[in-house]
Backbone:
């Protein structure tokens, strides 16, 4: 009698992304894309696109940058909508939302305190704009600074985004199903203290996270201004590219659980 087949173990995935993709940061995004491609291969990462960074760098009307976005997408790079303006225009003064807004981001938690109607309007407008530029659907929605309020959660579900992400997980907005767990490895360049802490955390992650099914790495334009951060990014990508297969976020929607 033939022994029953043993299912293949879930493969380990490395998901990488470039945040704050905007005409304002075109040179930095180019440099980061080249860096990630060197470690992961062409198109094996995502870009998070801002329609109008701080309301002074619009995609609309910028034919040259729109062409760049299409070129990147044609290379296989996944495109996420990343807010509308990346600026918190409704900051909370008290409570948990106030703490997050003040200490987890430099005034960029755009969707943390937005009411549902405003969150829905910004998401719908951004989704339509980016998808019209690309000629294809976005992969999902990721809020600036990974911060979401109740209005944002409901708006994502209403609009049918396939994927969303925060600091600790990736999930389906409509059902709430969690597809991957674990902290995202990222870096901060805003101050010497944040640089030190992100270097410490990334070094710890290289030791503590190799057994994690899905490892997520996120880089930002500001990282290109600090050589120590770039060295840390290189070390982190090189480490996990050995144990985890560079993959697309959309691969999480398959039948195999990864955490």
Residues:
């Amino acid at each position: 009698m033939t022994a029953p087949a043993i299912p293949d173990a879930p493969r380990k995935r490395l998901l990488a992304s470039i945040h704050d993709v905007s005409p304002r940061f075109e040179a930095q995004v180019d440099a980061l894309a080249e860096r990630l491609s060197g470690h992961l291969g062409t198109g094996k990462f995502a870009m998070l696109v801002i329609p109008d960074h701080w309301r002074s760098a619009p995609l609309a009307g910028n034919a040259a940058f729109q062409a760049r976005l299409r070129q990147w997408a044609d290379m296989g790079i996944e495109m996420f909508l990343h807010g509308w303006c990346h600026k918190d225009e409704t900051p909370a003064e008290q409570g948990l939302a106030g703490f997050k807004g003040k200490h987890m981001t430099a005034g960029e938690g755009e969707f943390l305190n937005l009411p549902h109607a405003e969150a829905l309007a910004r998401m719908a407008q951004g989704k339509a704009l980016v998808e019209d530029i690309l000629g294809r659907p976005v992969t999902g929605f990721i809020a600036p600074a990974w911060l979401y309020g109740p209005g944002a959660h409901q708006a994502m579900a209403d609009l049918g985004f396939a994927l969303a992400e925060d600091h600790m997980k990736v999930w389906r907005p409509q059902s709430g199903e969690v597809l991957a767990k674990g902290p995202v490895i990222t870096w901060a360049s805003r101050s010497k203290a944040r640089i030190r802490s992100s270097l410490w955390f990334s070094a710890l992650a290289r030791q503590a996270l190799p057994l994690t099914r899905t490892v997520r790495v996120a880089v930002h334009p500001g990282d290109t201004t600090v050589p120590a951060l770039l060295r840390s990014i290189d070390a982190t990508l090189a480490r996990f590219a050995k144990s985890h297969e560079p993959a697309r976020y959309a691969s999480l929607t398959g039948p195999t659980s990864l955490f």
About this structure: The helical segments are 26-40, 63-74, 95-103, 116-134, 150-159, 192-208, 227-243. The longest strand covers residues 13-21.
